[in-house]
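Database export, one record per block. Field names are fixed; values are copied verbatim from the stored entry.
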Amino acid sequence: MCEQQNSISDNETPERDSITQTGSITARSSRGTIHCITIVGQIEGHMEAPQQTKTTKYEHIIPQITAVEEADDIDGLLVLLNTVGGDVEAGLAIAELIAGMRKPTVSLVLGGGHSIGVPLAVAAKQSFIAPSAAMTIHPVRMSGTVIASPQTYAYFRSIQERITAFVTAHSHIDPAVFERLMMATDQMSADVGTVVGGQEAVDHGLIDAVGSLSDALSALHQMIGPRDTQ
């Protein structure tokens, strides 16, 4: 009995370590094998965030996505989001990787998918948002020293155009509607932009459907399709 318990404990340790270190897990069932990654807190890019800040490190997520795409024993990817946003280039890099996968991918926004979390949410082949979740759409911001020159403003505009192009290409929202939501001045007292709730995000065509974890998993299993049995 002791030997059996030790064996079970040893088998569970890698999964527990994966959850602790990277917020990911691979779930296996008769319907298929799904790898789940979580993108939470602030998306950390080239600069480290303060120690007390909850972060998702892009150097952890990028290798995971690559491994999932290449792994023969993984059938699909589920992305769970509850993020305030963060590093723009890191977020876009992760979103581009997800969008470029051949395997089935589904995203689910829980709590919030704000700022650069918007491209991450729409990058999957099918996207869901919880009824109580929200998404903030606003122009690119930059903290720290900013050089007030035409080149700086051109750079900001270029980044914004890249984000808009990605979001509109991977969702059903009209570019003009997305731009209007981004530049709205009547919703946020100290900022420019718009906060949209779950159903509103669907009505705008930003997210495919309002749903829960079970809905996201059902959609993913439907994409995977029936498994061959011998």
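Remark 1: The first strand starts at residue 24 and ends at 29.
Remark 2: Helices lie at 2-22, 58-70, 88-99, 117-122, 150-169, 175-182, 198-203, 213-224.
End of record.
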